[in-house]
Amino acid sequence: MYVLNKDREYKSAGEGAVRKVLAYSKNIMNVELQFDAGAVGAMHCHPHEQIGYVIEGTLIYKEEGQEDVTLTAGDSYIVPPNVKHGIKCVTDVRLLDIFTPMREEFI
Fold first, then answer.
1. Domains, the chain, ranges and CATH?
2. From the DSSP assignment, how many helices (H) and strands (E) are in the chain?
3. Tens-of-pLDDT digits for all 107 residues of the chain?
């Protein structure tokens, strides 16, 4: 099975943000996100485990109980289930997020 990125469309993911669901099954999903400089991914949590990879740009990653950290292209983050987290984009940002299990609400 394969997914062609050109066949997937971006959908709004809040002010200054869009997301494109790429490949997924009930157990795993990868999602490409783009944020404008200054956009905020509000603090939130979900029951899914998440791994993110910064494709391009600079952001401030926030996680409940941890100090904020600046991440740039090539950096990654891991979010355990049910942990509050969010971002603030310093520049335009493009991310690849992987969730397990898949985020049904994104479909």
1. 17-106 (2.60.120.10)
2. 0, 10
3. 899 999 999 999 999 999 999 999 999 999 999 999 999 999 999 999 999 999 999 999 999 999 999 999 999 999 999 999 999 999 999 999 999 999 999 99
